[in-house]
């Protein structure tokens, strides 16, 4: 195949993902339980439609897109760091730390509201930060060959914090229990422009940092020996990626709770679509994750009016069958050598 | 001025209080091919990892081009030394050409690590050009090994550390690689250090031998001197039957 032809073929998935993203970002805020008056919306003559569109749906749409994109990019990075396609942004316990923080805030009414956001968010972020620091030091500080220690520290702390969260739930009354459970399910109904602005720097640093270190991520997937002897400053790169991406995930999980599945499914699908090279995979995962969560959230808030389904439930309900379908297709196509 | 490319003095390496390498001293001359031999667990791989700075030695010094190995930045070191590991299990489905291109990482801006000319040459030299678009995870052991050697060539270094470089290759490709090593040594002035458990392979490819036994250097000298029954017995604790190669005039060992 000619080089120009190869370049065109390589660009195709990005064009598609870009067009779908654009369509979703324009279309999703127009959909929902309440039908918008388009004429009134365009001429600003219908206050209800204007309010719903500009103050509720648009920030929520943009946040859903950014959250999905962050979780997918987080998944890509953690999968490369641990050389495991099943690693997810929550593998190292960030979500469990955040859940514990949020549960404590909801149970004990801890103070700490910030920019009009509830205190549970700040405490969830504190819990996530504490987990990041603890996992890093317990896991050997990211020394070469220490990924297993890091992984083990993350899994152990994750179980420990999950048990503490369960204990807090056990001690809670009905209202507190409902609030905690609702938080744990993951939701996007609390967001506005202020939360979007708070999220933005974390997402920018996490995603751009991952993109900047894409060649290093490629080499790290080959193993420590090859990465080191090709010139990767392994410890520094690993620390940078671990911190920037974990902070991004911490910000996301503090804002929206635990939204599962995206961090595993989207990187897998994008890798199948455009290959494992991170310079292409990271932008693809960003676009794919954004679209996936945006569509899931639109379904979550439109499917059963007036009830809103927690978006974490929808991501798994849509994602799991899609994933199984793809796995079965892959098995049929590549069996028996790959399976 | 020391003319050696690499000088190792009193190198020791311990792991969990057990001494794996003990007081090793030797030099690698530019444009030479040295084989590290020894029984399983003698410390061959550990030695190569110390020289590649994958492991940091516990004691002693390693100098590369008259500078301590530890004084090089990761990029500088990767432009001088490449390492081919004994085991390589790729997890992600990179194509062969993508993998070989990664060997160029230390040269250019890390953000644009591809140099088509050198990569193409490396693929052609190792006869892996026809595998260029194949997925790394789907290659056979011997093919994977040739691709690893291609990536090491693409890295364009002065010293190549090879851990069991011919593992899994059929005789035709073993021969091809032996000729390639000779070509790289003579035409590019490359220095090679290969760890192998196969004494005949070592005899065929190397000018000199380092023989390890329980982490200690018990022979450091020319290959022709090494291929003598008393030295081989001292290294491997076994009697060998030696014969002369009818065409090359080298002494080889017979199995059994």
Tell me about this structure.
Chain A has 339 residues and is mainly α. Chain A has a single domain (12-334), classed as ABC transporter involved in vitamin B12 uptake, BtuC. Helix content of chain A is 76%, strand content 0%. The longest helix of chain A is centred in the N-terminal third of the chain and has 36 residues, at 47-82. Chain B has a single domain (6-254), classed as P-loop containing nucleotide triphosphate hydrolases (Rossmann fold). Helix content of chain B is 32%, strand content 27%. A 6-stranded mixed sheet of chain B has the order 6-7-8-3-9-10, sandwiched between helices. Chain B is globular.
CATH architecture of chain A: Orthogonal Bundle
Alpha-beta classification of chain A: mainly alpha
Main sheet overview of chain A? none
Helix content of chain B: 25-40%
Number of strand elements of chain A: 0
Order of adjacent strands in the largest pleated sheet of chain B? 6-7-8-3-9-10
Assign the CATH class of chain A.
Answer: Mainly Alpha
Number of helices of chain A: 14
Shape of chain B: globular
CATH T-level topology of chain B: Rossmann fold
The average pLDDT score of chain A comes to 86
Low-confidence stretches of chain A: 333-339
List keywords for this structure.
heterodimer, A: mainly alpha, 14 helices, B: 256 residues, alpha/beta, Rossmann fold, six-stranded mixed sheet, four-stranded antiparallel sheet
What is shown here, in short?
The complex is a heterodimer of chains A (339) and B (256). With 339 residues, chain A is mostly helical.
Write the layout of secondary structure elements.
The complex is a heterodimer of chains A (339) and B (256).
Chain A: H1 3-27, H2 38-42, H3 47-82, H4 94-108, H5 119-138, H6 147-171, H7 174-185, H8 193-212, H9 214-220, H10 224-229, H11 234-256, H12 262-274, H13 278-302, H14 311-334
Chain B: E1 6-15, E2 18-28, E3 33-37, H1 44-51, E4 59-64, E5 67-68, H2 74-80, E6 81-84, H3 96-101, H4 116-125, H5 141-154, E7 159-163, H6 171-188, E8 191-195, H7 199-205, E9 208-213, E10 216-222, H8 223-226, H9 229-236, E11 241-244, E12 251-254
Helix pairs in contact in B: 4-5
């Amino acid at each position: 195949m000619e080089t120009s032809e190869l370049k065109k073929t390589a660009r195709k998935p990005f064009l598609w993902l870009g067009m779908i993203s654009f369509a979703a970002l324009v279309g999703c805020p127009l959909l929902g339980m309440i039908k918008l008056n388009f004429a009134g919306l365009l001429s600003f003559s219908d206050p209800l439609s204007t309010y719903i569109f500009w103050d509720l749906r648009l920030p929520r749409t943009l946040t859903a897109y950014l959250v999905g994109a962050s979780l997918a990019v987080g998944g890509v990075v953690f999968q490369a760091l641990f050389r495991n396609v099943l690693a997810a942004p929550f593998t190292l316990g960030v979500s469990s730390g955040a859940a514990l923080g949020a549960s404590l805030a909801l149970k004990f009414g801890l103070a700490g509201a910030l920019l009009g956001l509830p205190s549970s968010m700040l405490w969830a972020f504190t819990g996530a930060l504490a987990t990041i620091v603890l996992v890093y030091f317990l896991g050997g500080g990211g020394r070469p060959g220490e990924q297993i220690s890091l992984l083990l520290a993350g899994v152990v702390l994750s179980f420990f914090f999950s048990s503490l969260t369960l204990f807090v739930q056990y001690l809670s009354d009905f209202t507190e229990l409902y609030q905690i459970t609702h938080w744990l399910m993951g939701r996007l109904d609390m967001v506005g422009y202020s939360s979007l602005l708070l999220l933005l720097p974390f997402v920018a640093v996490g995603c751009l940092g991952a993109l900047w270190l894409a060649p290093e991520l490629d080499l790290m997937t080959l193993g420590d020996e090859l990465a080191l002897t090709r010139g990767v400053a392994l410890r520094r790169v690993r620390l940078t990626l671990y911190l920037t991406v974990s902070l991004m995930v911490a910000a996301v999980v503090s804002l929206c709770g635990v939204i599962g599945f995206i961090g595993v499914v989207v990187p897998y699908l994008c890798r199948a679509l455009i290959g494992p090279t991170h310079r292409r995979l990271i932008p693809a995962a960003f676009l794919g994750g954004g679209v996936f969560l945006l569509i899931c959230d639109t379904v979550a808030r439109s499917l059963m009016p007036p009830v809103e389904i927690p978006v974490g439930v929808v991501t798994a309900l849509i994602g799991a069958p899609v994933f199984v379908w793809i796995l079965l297709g892959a098995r049929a196509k590549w069996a028996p050598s790959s399976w | 001025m020391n003319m050696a490319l690499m000088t190792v003095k009193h190198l020791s390496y311990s792991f969990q209080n057990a001494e794996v390498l003990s007081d090793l001293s030797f030099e690698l001359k530019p444009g030479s091919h040295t084989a590290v031999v020894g029984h399983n667990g003698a410390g061959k791989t550990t030695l190569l990892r110390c020289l590649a700075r994958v492991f940091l030695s516990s004691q002693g010094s390693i100098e590369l081009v008259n500078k301590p190995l530890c004084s090089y930045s990761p990029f500088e070191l990767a432009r001088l030394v490449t390492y081919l590991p004994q085991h390589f299990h790729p997890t992600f489905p990179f194509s062969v050409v993508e993998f070989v291109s990664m060997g160029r990482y230390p040269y250019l801006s890390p953000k644009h690590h591809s140099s088509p000319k050198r990569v193409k040459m490396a693929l052609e030299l190792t006869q892996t050009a026809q595998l260029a678009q194949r997925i790394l995870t789907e290659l056979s052991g011997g093919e994977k090994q040739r691709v690893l050697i291609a990536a090491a060539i693409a890295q364009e270094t002065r010293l190549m550390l090879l851990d069991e470089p011919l593992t899994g290759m059929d005789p035709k490709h073993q021969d091809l690689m032996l000729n390639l090593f000779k070509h790289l040594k003579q035409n590019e002035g490359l220095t090679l250090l290969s760890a192998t458990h196969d004494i005949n392979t070592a005899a065929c490819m190397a000018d000199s031998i380092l023989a390890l036994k329980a982490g200690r250097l018990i022979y450091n000298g020319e290959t022709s001197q090494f291929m003598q029954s008393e030295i081989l017995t001292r290294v491997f604790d076994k009697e060998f039957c030696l014969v002369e190669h009818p065409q090359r005039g080298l002494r080889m060992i017979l199995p059994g």
